[in-house]
């Protein structure tokens, strides 16, 4: 138990140091932009495909039940409420944890075992800022944007499924989908993914940067990054949803 | 008053956990000298190099570069000193997401802010030409053979025209001909740059050819220090066996 709390303390101070260093010059813009491309742009196809498929599937599942009660008109609003409030942010974070978390963990660990980090340090370059801070900040900024893409891809999937089932027009679908959506339903859940991004970047960066066990360490860093990031995202989600309900009581109704 | 040594280790101790890696090690390297550090695996040779460039700090003792004790140097002072140092890592340690050109440009961009982009490009071209890799400038490290990677690592270490060049096992993993080519390059660098070379190696032939003097470490202790001819006559059997060509 003591080791667990030591570990949590180390990861937390690692993440806090990264946040402080993010505001301390010199800024590693070149590496930051490269991470935006790697984490954001290259995750986009996965996010769009997953969002679209989940939108189709959720629509198909809910239709069967709602039709029995004559409530198929609620399908678009159910779809938007589900994705904007919870599914979009959470699934985006879990997908990014899988794709990017493993990449960050293994990539930095590989640089450690092949002496690349020592080479960077020997040039008096702060390897922590160059490799870890840029990735954490990129994750924090990119996650909300990817969530938006996930949300709208799912709406597109949902509309397509509904169109083939009931020939609903796009205008009517959008009217019904956004009728019950308020900014408070949309902004806080989207922004909470910045916390998920912080978790992914910090946990993966920690496992990669602190490895010292050769190729086995690389493998372990990749696995641990995904497992612990995913677990912490789910746990953090519970806390964040409660916090959003507290700050925006109408969301809880 | 005599000139300060290029490098001085003064009663240096270093442990990792319970393992004593360097145990009261002292020696001096003169400017322009090529010193080879030999010893069995795990005797603190690479740690010695890392202490010289400030990647590690000793538990006690002084590590001086020129007249400056780097143990208590600030990061800014270390950065200034590193401007005159080059390090060839055992695995070459080229940044694998960078092209060869960017790998060489990085030290210039970070440690020599006075250079314009065109001057940086020219310095990179010249250094790569020196090590025979001028046609491979746009390649990624993964596209290079082991020997080419070593030469590229050496080029990165040389690009700032260092006064002190630290080299970790230049011939490891290379065939004898390629290793000999690397030794030729080191001899050229020593002559043309008038640099001080510190080379960690297991290659006796290379050490006798390139090194002016040899340090022998065993279990963290310095057990031999002198020219190859002097060490051939050492009382210590490990020293004689390590520096013997036969």
Helix content of chain B: 25-40%
Number of domains of chain A: 1
- End-to-end Cα distance of chain B: 42 Å
- Mean of residue pLDDT of chain A? 92
What percent strand of chain B? Answer: 15-25%
Rg of chain B from C-alpha positions? 18 Å
Secondary structure tally, helices of chain B: 9
| Main beta sheet strand tally, sense and closure of chain B | 6 strands, mixed
Q: Give Rg of chain A in angstroms.
A: 21 Å
Q: What structural class do the secondary elements of chain B suggest?
A: alpha/beta
SSE topology:
The complex is a heterodimer of chains A (253) and B (246).
Chain A: H1 2-22, H2 29-40, H3 44-68, H4 75-113, H5 116-122, H6 127-166, H7 170-179, H8 183-191, H9 193-209, H10 214-247
Chain B: E1 7-16, E2 19-29, E3 34-39, H1 45-52, E4 60-65, E5 68-69, H2 75-82, E6 85-88, H3 100-111, H4 117-130, H5 146-158, E7 164-168, H6 176-193, E8 196-200, H7 204-210, E9 213-218, E10 221-226, H8 228-232, H9 237-243
Parallel strand pairs in B: 3-8, 3-9, 6-7, 7-8
Antiparallel strand pairs in B: 1-2, 1-4, 4-5, 9-10
Helix pairs in contact in B: 3-4, 3-5, 4-5, 5-6
Question: Can you characterise this structure?
Answer:
The complex is a heterodimer of chains A (253) and B (246). Chain A is an all-alpha fold and 253 residues long. Chain A has one domain. Helices cover 85% and strands 0% of the residues of chain A. Chain A has ten helices and no strands. Chain A has helices at 2-22, 29-40, 44-68, 75-113, 116-122, 127-166, 170-179, 183-191, 193-209, 214-247. Chain A starts with a helix and ends in a 6-residue tail after the last helix. The relative contact order of chain B is 0.17. In chain B, the strands form two sheets. Chain B has a six-stranded mixed sheet with strand order 6-7-8-3-9-10, with helices on both faces. In chain B, strands 2-1-4-5 form a four-stranded antiparallel sheet, with helices on one face. Chain B has nine helices and ten strands. Helix content of chain B is 37%, strand content 25%. In chain B, a hairpin with a 2-residue loop joins strand 1 and strand 2 (19-29). In chain B, helix 3 packs parallel to helix 5 (146-158). Chain B has 246 residues and is α/β, with parallel strands linked by helices. Chain B has a domain at 1-82 and 207-246: P-loop containing nucleotide triphosphate hydrolases (Rossmann fold). Chain B starts with 6 loop residues before the first strand and ends with a helix. Chain B is globular and about 55 Å long. The chains are: A mainly alpha (253), B alpha/beta (246).
